[in-house]
Amino acid sequence: GGGSGGGRTKKPDRIELHEAVVPFDNLTSDCIARLWDRFVAEAASFAVSEADLLDMCERSLRHVIKTDAKPFDDAVKDLFHLFAGSEPGVQHVDFMEVQMALLFCATHSFEAKANFIFDCMDFEGTDWVTQPAF
């Protein structure tokens, strides 16, 4: 069967981040924790508006995000719109999705990422997570 490699597809050599996530790549554990703490302190639900996300990022990440290509506010708005999708009228995104995407790109070890996710899901602080939490 002619073609490339007997019908096998070549695996990518690396994962490329969406351009909206690039300014938030390699955040440290304290940055990820500060963003989560800000969310817990301020948000009424997991659904956050663009203004909510901008405020939380402003208060927890502005000092570490260095973007020459665009202003900080535009970087956060691009991140919001990545999760909002292209459907017109979407006014909220799931903060947990945004947080987990940033955690995926963070400098944490795999074990630290897993522990952070568990801690986020342990709403009552009991060291137990129930299936409905997921």
In short:
The chain has 134 residues and is mostly helical. The chain is 45% helix and 3% strand.
Tell me what the structure shows.
The chain is mainly alpha-helical and 134 residues long. It contains 5 helices and 2 strands; from the N terminus they run H-E-H-H-E-H-H.
- Strand percent estimate: under 5%
* Residues in helices, as a percent range: 40-55%
Strand arrangement in the largest pleated sheet: 1-2
Q: How is the biggest beta sheet arranged?
A: 2 strands, antiparallel
Radius of gyration, CA atoms, in whole angstroms: 18 Å
Number of helices: 5
Structural class label: mainly alpha
How would you summarize the topology of this molecule?
Layout: H1 29-42, E1 47-48, H2 50-60, H3 72-84, E2 93-94, H4 95-104, H5 110-121
Antiparallel strand pairs: 1-2
